[in-house]
Amino acid sequence: MHPRTCVSAISTFRLSLPEDLEFWSSHHIERVGVSVAKLEAFGWEKGTEIVAAAVERGLAVVDLIGLGPFRLAHPERWNAQQERLVRSIETATAVGAGCIVFTTGPFAPLTWDEAADALEAALAPVLPEARARHVDFAIEHTNSLRVDVGFVHTLRDAIDLARRLDAGVCMELNACWAERDLAATIASGVDRIRLVQVSDFKVGTIASSQRLVPGDGDIPLPRIIGTLLAAGYNGVFELELIGDAIASEGYDRAVPRAVAALDALLADAGT
């Protein structure tokens, strides 16, 4: 496995946390992103313990992912999500994860700028604790169909918002590969990019979250990865696979095939 390749637990969406750990071990996957939802389902404390035990055996946890979004128009509901963020910070510290990836949350009926103000207020109680523990918060921009999970739909907006919050960005290639002047956005914002999520997309697909193994679709991955490396990005490239094609092929085939494809892309890029 290439030292900059990572596999998100979203790639094995239907597996539980213990099943993820078994899957990673059996397929020699060394770097992972752990699902917050799976941690919660299994039990925070017990889940943190079994992940920490896997870390002691050699697993590297790059990030925690899948943290549910704030309901930005409803401040009375923020406390529960803030508590989840605090628990995520504690778990990240315990397992050595340097990053927590989150989506911003739905914002209707707020305007975009009002939603940004609300997000800043919602995160204010927890960001200082994350910084104190050297855990980055990374805003993940989302496909514009997914207004149910976020209001930030371009890499450029994610970087602008991250600068305002003094946070990081999770660059989701599947959601930004066709953006105007992407190379310039990467070059000017690479200092904020904490994680790059990789998958492929077939032109003609008309539903969100229908991702493919790298090389099976139309995203110019070699060019974009090369642009990131040329801009100075020195972080991890995380596979995040989800959708009918992945489920149909099966995790045991699709995920190792994706790891091999990403490894080859990174090797070809000279990393």
Would you give an account of this structure?
By secondary structure, this protein is an alpha/beta fold. Helix 2 packs across helix 3 and helix 7 runs parallel beside helix 9. The protein has one domain: Divalent-metal-dependent TIM barrel enzymes (TIM Barrel), CATH 3.20.20. The mean pLDDT is 96. An eight-stranded parallel beta barrel has the order 1-2-3-4-5-6-7-8, surrounded by five helices. It has twelve helices and eight strands. Helix content is 46%, strand content 15%.
Provide the fold topology.
Layout: E1 5-8, H1 17-26, E2 31-35, H2 36-42, H3 44-56, E3 60-67, H4 78-95, E4 99-102, H5 112-123, H6 127-132, E5 136-140, H7 155-165, E6 168-172, H8 173-176, H9 182-189, E7 193-198, H10 221-231, E8 237-239, H11 244-249, H12 251-268
Parallel strand pairs: 1-2, 1-8, 2-3, 3-4, 4-5, 5-6, 6-7, 7-8
Helix pairs in contact: 2-3, 3-4, 7-9, 9-10
Protein traits:
TIM Barrel; 271 residues; alpha/beta; 46% helix
Average of the residue pLDDT scores: 96
CATH superfamily: Divalent-metal-dependent TIM barrel enzymes
How many H/I helical runs?
Answer: 12
C-alpha Rg, in Å? Answer: 17 Å
CATH topology: TIM Barrel
Under the CATH scheme, the architecture is: Alpha-Beta Barrel
Reading off the top of the CATH hierarchy, the class is best stated as: Alpha Beta
Gross geometry: globular
Q: Stretches where pLDDT falls below 50 for ≥5 residues?
A: none
Number of DSSP E strands:
8
Relative helix content: 40-55%
Count of discrete domains: 1
- What oligomeric state do the depicted chains represent? single chain
Strand order of the largest sheet: 1-2-3-4-5-6-7-8
